[in-house]
Amino acid sequence: MVEQPKPLIEDLLERISRNGSIRFDEFMELALYHPSGGFFSSGGGAGRAGADFLTSPEVGPLFGAVLAEFLDARWQELGCPDPFVVVEAAAGRGALAIAVRAAQPVCAPALRYVLVERSEALRERQGDYLPLVQPYEVFGPATDEDQALLTVDQGAGPLFCSLADLPAESVVGVVIANELLDNLPVRILERGHAGWLELRVTVQDGELSELLVPADPVTDRLANQLLPHALLGARIPLQTQAADWLYRALSLLQKGSVLVVDYCADSAGLSERSSAEWLRTYQAHKRGQHPLHAPGSQDITCEVALDQLQRVAPGLQSLRQADWLSQWGIDRLVEVGRQIWSEGASEGSLEAVRGRSRVIEAEALLDPAGLGDFQVLEWHIG
């Protein structure tokens, strides 16, 4: 008989009781990903009705259509490899993959699309609109245990499969993370009189509360490297899990690109703002309450510190999302949509409605006060 995991709150309180407190990143991990009551494990996430926040792929298929143009260009630059593997981390229910498939990219016969999603509840929804196959059909059987190169049938794409974590096999292609890094647990540091302090979570008067303790020497040195002239009381996130993920993503590629889309700043800029501005919560498309409130009921998200990622891989190319979308043809796609709408509006055809939708989607994706101000980060390998 499989032992059922403890409920989130019970597990959380037991951990605090054993140690007196836990680090904030451990709390965030439990609140978001605990198998019995974590926010994402319970089906929370991106979408429209009944969801909690809206990401670019959930605005509509236009973002995926632009991404398909990008993928075709990278495929051609790599010499049209077959297989061409696209790994999407934090794929959710599969909205981006669905849009890429519908766009019918030129690279489709070579395309092997891997949806990586740690939430079982969200993985179960991916097969609703995608013809998922077994991972061995995407990667092929290993021909040598000492080699990462795999044998697959060429020209069989597009093929889609789902995994709970990044694949172990090295690939040629693109690794994508759209609004993943902001959801990876962070440590919180605050500048004190005698050095850096670390935020921990404890229980006081029956409620979860913050507790500041002196940071360990290694963490103190790292914080001083990131922010040598921090003001007293300044707070920064220490995003070691985001840095670790980037290292793993880069290591996955023989040749290709890692593409990250998120809202970003740098450690110095974050230290000048209230932590309530860059460590936020969302629930039902509205700003939520304090991060310690009702664990598992709300998303917890943190702006991504670019300088911390650059310590892992300095060869970063960065564009605002609005500029990146323009570079990869959103204006042309929207103009085609306008023409389709103009020619078919009187008939009210589904194709005409889709054309009109592109115009509306573009407004949201390019909004300088919203998604358009996100950063698109790219690292090249090989």
From TrEMBL:
GO molecular function list: protein-arginine omega-N symmetric methyltransferase activity
Keyword DNA-binding recorded: no
Places the protein is found: Mitochondrion
UniProt-listed Pfam families: Methyltransf_28
Listed name of the protein: Unannotated protein
UniProt KW keywords: Methyltransferase, Mitochondrion, Transferase
Any single GO CC term annotated in Swiss-Prot or TrEMBL for this entry: mitochondrion
Lineage, broadest ranks: unclassified sequences, metagenomes, ecological metagenomes
Record GO biological process: methylation
Coiled coil: none
